[in-house]
Every structure is written in C-alpha cells, then in structure tokens.
Design brief:
There is one protein chain. By secondary structure, the protein is mostly beta strands. It has four helices and 30 strands. Strands 10-9-12-17-14-15 form a six-stranded mixed beta sheet, with no helix packed on it. It has a six-stranded mixed beta sheet with strand order 21-20-23-28-25-26, with no helix packed on it. The chain is globular, with a radius of gyration of 22 Å. The relative contact order is 0.12. The protein binds CU-O-CU linkage and copper (II) ion (2 copies). One copper (II) ion binds next to strand 5.
Length: 472
C-alpha cells in the first residue's frame, strides 16, 4: 500500500471517531495541504517569541515505496514557520535529537555572531545536547534557518524552516503565501542515497522529487482576479528554480533583505539555492488549470538543455475577486550604503582537482578550512569583489549582513535594481562587485550555497573588528 494512502485511511478513522459522539457532522474544515506548521509561541509577552525547536528524525512520504526517514525540525518538513514583527526578540530552546552533531544557522538575520550558528562561531550541538539562541529581529523580510554541519546531507534530508518578519506596513494584497521550494533525491525504497554521483558532485545534488512546502505534486488554488503575494524561498541543495506561470507577469517587490524600493516585472523568476524573492501578481480572471514550471536555465555544464520541470499545478478557481487591488509600484526607501573605502576584498571562486584526484571547490585557491580569512573594520563599508573563474554559476552567501551590487562585469547596476541581498548568483566566468558593511564584530562566514560546493571547500570567513579566527 502507498504510504500516503495508509495515512489517509488513518486520518479518516480519526475523523470518524472524533465525530462519533455528537450531533451530525458538519463538513470537515478545509485544510490547506500547503500550509506550513506555525511555530508555537511559549511567551505571553507580545514582543517576545519563544519557541522549542527539536531536530529529530520523522517519517515522510517522499514518493518512495516506503516512508523516508527525514531529518526535521519538530517533525515536519519543512520545519515550522516563525511569524514575527520587526523588533521582536526571538528565543529558541534548541535540542538535538539527531544521531549526529548539528547547529542552527539563521540565514539572512543580522544578529550577534555568537548566535549565528556557524562553525566559525559555535561548537556543534552534540546528540542529546541543547543550545539557547536569543536575538532581536531587526529587519522585515523572509529569512530561514538550517544546520551548518554537513549541510549537503542535513539540509537535503529536511532540516529547514522559515522566519517571516513583518514590517509595520506591508503591501496590500488579497492573499499572501510562503512557498518553500525543494527537490530531494530518494531511492525507490524511500531511503536517501548515501553516495554522491558525479553530476551531484559537480552541480550540487538535484532531486527526483520536487516539493512545495514539503508536498509532492502540489496544487496551489488561486481565486480568479486576486492579487497574490508569493514569498518564495529555495532550500534545495543545488537546483536553481526558474519559475514561470504562463500568462502571469511577476512583479518582484522584495528579495533577501526585504522590500525593494523600485519593484520590477519579470516573466520568469530565477531563484538560486538560499535566495528569497517576494513577488506580487494578478491571477487571470477566468478559471482554469495552469502550471508552475521551472524553465531551462544554463548554470553550467549544459544544465540548461533540459526540458521544463513541473513544480506545481495552479488551479484558478472559486469565487472571482471583484474589488480589485493594484500592484504595488513603489516600496519603502532603501538605505544606500556609504561610499566604500579601502581596497576591495577579493573572493575568487573556482573548481579544481585535489592531489588525490577528487573534485574540489576553492575560495582564493584554497579549500576550507585552510582558506585565509579576510579582514575588515567594524562599521566600514568595503567592496567585495566576487570573481567566478569556473564554468558554472555559484550562489554566493555572506553571513551576518546584507550587501548591495555595484557592478556586474564592470557595468554599473541600474539604481532601480538597488536591493539588500545576502545570497547572489555569481555567473560562470563573471565578476560582481558588491558593497557591504558589518555592524557586529566577529568571524562571519562566506560560501557558495550549493551545499556540495561549500562542503567541497568553497567557504571562508571575514573577520570583522580585529577579532581572531576561532580556529575551527
Ligand atoms: Cu544559509 Cu552559511 O548559510
Ligand atoms: Cu547564512
Ligand atoms: Cu557553487
């Protein structure tokens, strides 16, 4: 029997029992299978969010003959959605019930380095161990959390959750959804492969099962004529999603660091691992079935020669929305970083072969953890020069701050595209110059967010404010 069917039977039985005692049963409440599990706030203080977060194994239907033994935060994949507002204090009582060490990194969140949950800032939490994370949420936007130990395995197996931080004013839409995109590779019997095939070593592991909020063959129901807001996060190890819904133009209203000052329109939305995009769009006015696909995109090694990939079914159905809202065309003013000073900090990204003949990924010619650290002063604005010497794109990530693109291959970035990013695609054989500034001292990691690449060596750190390397 298919695992999904067994579960359906079980929940049916539970429903019958629950209804057995009372009056005639009303129609069961409609549950949205794409709804993320809300994190339970244990604090009565409206400005404090206090949660218990346990990393543990749980069974999950990933399309194999048997359930897959996923690694989860709190039993669900993806993990809980933490909803907060700007300025809230987040307190997380973390417990590790996995069979191996882990830690929780808060991707994109500006916080004190001791709370960053990276190998540069924290000792891994051993099985059975606990750690308390505690920090203020300073920025509005969509952020996420994931392990920073063996990320190619731990994130792949399901460890990822979302933090949504709301501003005092948010765009007015009919409906807002958070979409967590993922693809996982499972064997026919539901187990996870323990090896990496050559393509996965090179490009990062791409899965045979596409998940939207943990659901296979997802169906997204939209009302005709509605103004939708999709807040999209890619938690895949290696896959770039290049999203398209035929007949729909996405208005990009925000990205990693929050809302954009000048929204812009696209027909396809490219989103690399760990990036976030916030889009608004008008749903077509007539009912019908559309498809959300990932269109071919060349990120190296002929990866763009493949056919489009089905991501979800989009069902335009139900009561049409008649009181039409308008697409946001202006966002809040974005604070521009001051003129950078000093010499650029260069990060050269490349691939190569080790003495043993293995494929390696390098940062400035070296393999983590022997990559020499870069240094910069607290509060100073510097240029990071991200030079990709390899034949494929690398989504490069900087911990603990945002950066703003200055030039792409020497061409100035149009002012209308100004955005706070924490992860950006550095295309094959190209150079990006970005400006950044740290407001917290410490050892901050930088790395490619294709997990097989960072684990394969493309990882380093920036030491801010005269601190010493933690000597991982
Ligand atoms: Cu998602 Cu080191 O990051
Ligand atoms: Cu990060
Ligand atoms: Cu990479």
């Amino acid at each position: 029997m298919r695992p999904g069917f067994a579960r359906w039977l079980l929940s049916g039985a539970a429903l019958v029992m629950a209804c057995g005692s009372g009056a005639p049963a009303a129609a069961p409440p409609k549950v949205d299978p794409l709804a993320l599990t809300p994190a339970q706030d244990l604090s009565a203080d409206p400005d404090v969010i206090e949660i218990a977060l346990t990393a543990r194994e749980a069974d999950k239907d990933l399309g194999g003959a048997r359930l897959s033994r996923a690694w989860t935060y709190g039993g669900t994949m993806p993990g809980p959605l933490i909803d907060a507002k700007v300025g809230d204090l987040l307190v997380v009582h973390f417990k590790n019930e996995l069979p191996e060490a882990t830690m929780v990194h808060w991707h994109g969140v500006r916080l004190p380095v001791a709370m960053d949950g990276s190998p540069s800032s924290q000792k891994p939490v051993q099985p059975g161990g606990t750690f308390e994370y505690r920090f203020k949420l300073r920025d509005a936007g969509l952020f996420w959390f994931h392990p920073h130990v063996r990320t190619d395995v731990q994130i792949e197996r399901g460890l990822a959750g979302v933090i949504r931080v709301r501003a005092a004013r948010e765009p007015e839409v009919d409906e807002e959804r958070v979409l967590v995109l993922d693809d996982v590779r499972v064997n026919e019997d539901g187990t996870f492969p323990t090896y990496l095939d050559d393509a996965s070593k090179m490009m990062g592991r791409e899965g045979n099962t596409v998940l939207v909020n943990g659901v296979r063959d997802a169906r997204i129901a939209l009302r005709p004529g509605a103004l939708e807001r999709f807040r999209i996060l890619n938690v895949a190890n290696g896959r770039f999603f290049n999203l398209k819904i035929p007949g729909v133009r996405f208005r990009v209203i925000g990205t990693d660091g929050g809302l954009l000052e000048s929204p812009y329109d696209v027909e396809t939305l490219l989103i690399a691992p760990a990036e976030r995009y916030d889009v608004a769009f008008e749903v077509p006015r007539s009912s019908g079935i559309l498809s959300l696909t990932s269109e071919p995109y060349e990120r190296g090694h002929e990866s763009g020669a493949r056919p489009p990939l089905a991501v979800a079914t989009v069902a335009v159905e139900g009561e049409p929305v008649t009181a039409r809202k308008t697409l946001p065309d202006r966002g809040p003013a974005l604070a521009r970083l001051p003129e950078p000073t000093g010499a650029p900090i260069v990060f050269a990204l490349d691939e190569g072969t080790s003495e043993k003949g293995d494929l390696i990924f390098t940062l400035n010619g070296a393999v983590w953890p022997v990559v020499p650290a870069a240094r910069m002063g607290l509060g100073e604005t510097r240029v990071l020069e991200l030079t990709n010497k390899s034949e494929m794109d690398h989504p490069f990530h900087v911990h603990g701050t945002f950066f703003q693109v200055l030039t792409r291959n020497g061409a100035p970035e149009p002012p209308a595209r100004l955005a706070d990013k924490d992860t950006i695609i550095v295309q094959a054989k190209s150079t990006l110059r970005v400006a950044t500034r740290f407001d917290e001292p410490g050892a901050w990691m930088v790395h490619c967010h294709i997990n097989e690449h960072s684990e394969g060596g493309m990882m380093g750190e920036i030491l801010v404010g005269g601190v010493m390397s933690s000597g991982h």
